[in-house]
Amino acid sequence: MGEKHSVRGRVGDLPIQTQPAVCRILDANLDRAREGLRIIEEWCRFGMNSSPLVNECKQMRQELASWHSIELRAARDTPGDPGTELSHPQEEQRSSIEHLLQVNFSRVEEALRVLEEYSKLYDPDMGAATKQMRYRVYTLESSLLAYKRHQALLRSRLYLVTSASEELFSIVEAALQGGLTLVQYREKTADDNVKLAHANKLRQLCHQYGALFIMNDRVDLALAVDADGIHLGQQDMPIAIARQILGPQRLIGRSTTNPEEMQRAIAEGADYIGVGPVYETPTKVGKAAAGLEYVRYAAANSPIPWFAIGGIEVDNLNDVLGAGAERVAVVRAIMQSDQPMLMAQYFISQLGRVQTLRTIDARLPQSHV
Asked: Where is region (Unknown) located (predicted)?
């Protein structure tokens, strides 16, 4: 009771015309923050099936409800609120789930900032609590984006690594139309202005088709174009440094050529690894093939997603899949194909067929119990 009395005392110290205004501001923004969190929570629940993210949203909503006192609700004056008649064309449509989530994260963050400031006139404890909650929402936003990218990575079976081509964009778009969901932009010789322009265009294409866009080697360019992640070679910067620069929400992949490099990449926190080169390839001049034995090792020992890579073509795909691969990365097979869309469809169908058969095999013993 004493705490409630001190709260009313602070409002009572304000000019008489200011008291209801402050309470109305707090009431409106508590509603706004809770509504935005509920919209985010519904997607975490039904769109992402993520219990931890749902629980975090729910917990924050309940904490806000505990501050939403009868006193604040009593100050509400919906008929007299001029803001109820205001709107903007951008509020009347959402272009995608990502856009919807972004709008509501902004809504929650803005509401919490308003609560933080006006609570200083009402109850400093409420101000401190909403300030900390704002940082929790920032973390939630990063976590949700990271979760979305990881889920997309897990669903991806075919990974296209680009090579220099005058038809770069048309080839990539054709492969995307064929169902490709993961693209890495790899360009070793062009200057940075060209790389930046190409990466921007490819990122836009990938996101238009719901695919992930990965930048090869260059962490700075990955940030500049808002890539979904970065792929690092063995001679590139440590994963920990890349993570520090990129933050937790982006994917980091690492090329590996043997079990030792694989285990080190996993220990360092890679989100996925490349396994190869399975066969000798002009893409990796002078690098000996790791062979199918390394593919078998990865199949038995890698707890994270991995892509067999290096010289994989239509003619040897079955051998790679037979060694245990469930995901493959290709360069020439698509980049030099006359029919990149059909080639992407073929690889994806073969990978899907093998995955289905392995799933059935895994369930057979249980069906006979």
From this structure: 1-136
